Amino acid sequence: MGVTEVTAAPPLPAHPDPWLDAVLSGPLPHELSYAIGGPFHLLLPDRFDTNAAAFRAVLDEFGVEGRVYYAKKANKAAAWIERCALSGTGVDVAGSGELRDALGCGVPGENIVVTGPAKADALLRVAVLQGCLIAVDALDELERVIGIGRPARVLLRRRPPAQPNSRFGLDDGELERALVRCREAGVVMEGFSFHLSGYDPLMRAELAGELVDLCLKAQASGLRADRISIGGGFAVDYTDAPHWERYLRDQRPEHYHAGKSFAPGDFYPYHSPVAGPDALRAVLAAHGLAGRLREAGVKLLLEPGRALLDRAGCTVFRVQGVKDLDGYGIVTVDGSSLSLSEQWFDSEYLPDPVLLSRTGPGEPYAACVGGATCLESDMVTWRKVRFPARPAVGDLLVYPNTAGYQMDSNESPFHELPLPPKVVLDTADGSTRWRFDRPPLA
């Protein structure tokens, strides 16, 4: 069964990655699949180190003092937190489990920022005792911090004026009352933060500039206020512009199993002309932000998650069966769509899976990819991907660049399927060795 333009969705290959290709072309993926007996995630911690260093280099380039915090929610693996502990990279946590895991991996409390709405009392207590920086989201939360009766480090989170319906942050009146309470209670008010949806560097820079003004005003009233946090929102560039533009222009329901349809706005922006460290560079260059930070002596904190995990991992499934339909096929793999979390957003993970065939090239074949459960909706890939050959039982499908949010946001042992383990590739001594990631601390 050949492939036609009607059956196959437009291709969307991930950016080339020669180092990972060399790993995938060897025996290791098939050996791991045989040993594990199910899907697994490959983690590349060296890439995490490189990405974190690239963000720090941009701060240095602009002469801006600051700190990079890894947003832990993007991936639960201990490998990233262990790297943070060694490199001095901060960690952004939002719950007691994340805080306990960061501390247990050796990250000192002073390098941890605690975010999230309506934080539990137990989380606040440990955060205060360990000297963490707490992004206060509401007036009652500030009172609970004060009630712990120990010196506390806080940021006051401002609700973005451009997103007045956001459930995060304090409005102008609440900020004024919070500043008064910080002075009265002797709270170490270190500055301000915000939670801003979207990836627009100009909007992020504009709001950051307003926070600098708030710092100067707070300093005039006797508060420390010498830093701001601009959160995350640094896009990842998965594919090139021509493939992305073609996909958005040409994709239509017949390219998907069962006529599934997606609007262009349903997808993550898999191509971004300004991404990762370049997005931070754009933020600092906009509205003279870097100069304002230097002049005011205000530090810049940022909390990238996905961007620190760019090209730092992939997900591997084993082909369990292939069914020929009218003009395309369904490949069933040994896992479920819960191991790729884009479905959480009623969307599709678009970088094309790569077929690791045991028999070599053949006639092109179009197929979607289903999970090994009894749900019609359990589709790992709804679209009909153009494979270089008909997949066969025992072949592997590799989904590239899945470390950021895809691996474990939705993980579930539904149908008693085991959770895919995370396999860490270590290359410290010039060789490539593997180990299982340490599970989160209980």
**Relative strand content:** 15-25%
CATH topology of the largest domain, anyone? TIM Barrel
What is the helical fraction, as a range of percent?
A: 25-40%
Fourth CATH level, the homologous superfamily of the largest domain: Alanine racemase
Distance, first to last CA? 50 Å
Briefly note the structural class of the backbone: alpha/beta
- Gyration radius from CA atoms, angstroms: 23 Å
Helical segment tally? 12
Assembly category: single chain
* Sequence stretches where pLDDT stays below 50 over 5 or more residues: none
Largest sheet: 9 strands, mixed
Name the features.
single chain; 442 residues; alpha/beta; Lyase, Ornithine Decarboxylase, Chain A, domain 1; TIM Barrel; 2 domains; nine-stranded mixed sheet; 17 strands; 30% helix; elongated
Secondary-structure blueprint:
Blueprint: H1 18-25, H2 28-36, E1 40-43, H3 45-61, E2 66-71, H4 78-87, E3 90-93, H5 96-104, E4 112-114, H6 121-129, E5 133-136, H7 139-147, E6 153-158, H8 172-185, E7 188-194, H9 201-220, E8 227-229, H10 241-250, H11 276-285, H12 289-296, E9 299-302, E10 313-324, E11 329-333, E12 354-356, E13 365-370, E14 379-387, E15 396-399, E16 422-426, E17 433-436
Parallel strand pairs: 1-16, 2-3, 2-9, 3-4, 4-5, 5-6, 6-7, 7-8, 8-9, 11-13
Antiparallel strand pairs: 1-10, 10-11, 10-15, 12-15, 13-14, 16-17
Helix pairs in contact: 3-11, 7-8, 9-11, 9-12
